[in-house]
Amino acid sequence: MLTQQGLSRVIAPMFQPVVDLLHDDTLYFEALARSSTKQSHLELLRCAENFGFIELVDAAMLELVAHRLALEPHVSIAVNASVGTIERNCGPLVAAIFSHLQQADRLIVEITETVAVRDPRSVEIFMSGARAAGVRVAFDDFGDGHFSFEHILRFKPDIVKLAGTMLARPREFRRDISRLLSMAAAEGFAVVAENIDTEEKRQSCVAMGIRYGQGFLFGELAESPVRTTEMAPVVSRPGIRAAAKS
After folding, report:
1. Structural domains in the chain (count)
2. Judging by beta carbons within 10 Å of its beta carbon (0-12, 13-18, 19+), is residue 90 exposed, middle or buried?
């Protein structure tokens, strides 16, 4: 039988920094699930969604990230959770977060948009429970999935991550990007641009008013989340801030 413990032996977190685009300060790291077998991580995640065991993948990653946070007291880390996991497994997922309360204020949960929200009440309950533990909540890949502006207004995430597909065609999506930034200013959430792999894309984001970003321009996927010994990255509502140097 496939179990969370079994999955923890075939997946591993790889870390990529999220940075302040103006100063390159590392704010937190995203933990991305990667397969330790010959199977690609995309294939594994697709199978997990299609065959109903994505909650085991998400739970295994949460445990691995919580363990890493315990070892690295000066970093914050984001871990993904599927909408499917939240809707089918909301209570156990919140309970798992509460079992790591000492690390919860340095944990961000990125809700992925690969499936549509069918039970919005479950998402609200999850976000309320996660926040009660001190966890921040992000919406992943906005503009390239099922999340909408209406979802942002209803659920009020702490962070919205802007899909790289929108940044690749800024003229086409300028109105949507402008609306998102205006909403962020009004609602108090941070916007993180994804898939920044060139200096040109960074400068384009800054020109549009996007303060935070992630991508290969700032770091390849790494086995360790420690980019420097000086930074103590944290996320704090209503936005993101870099902590004072330790």
Report:
1. 1
2. buried
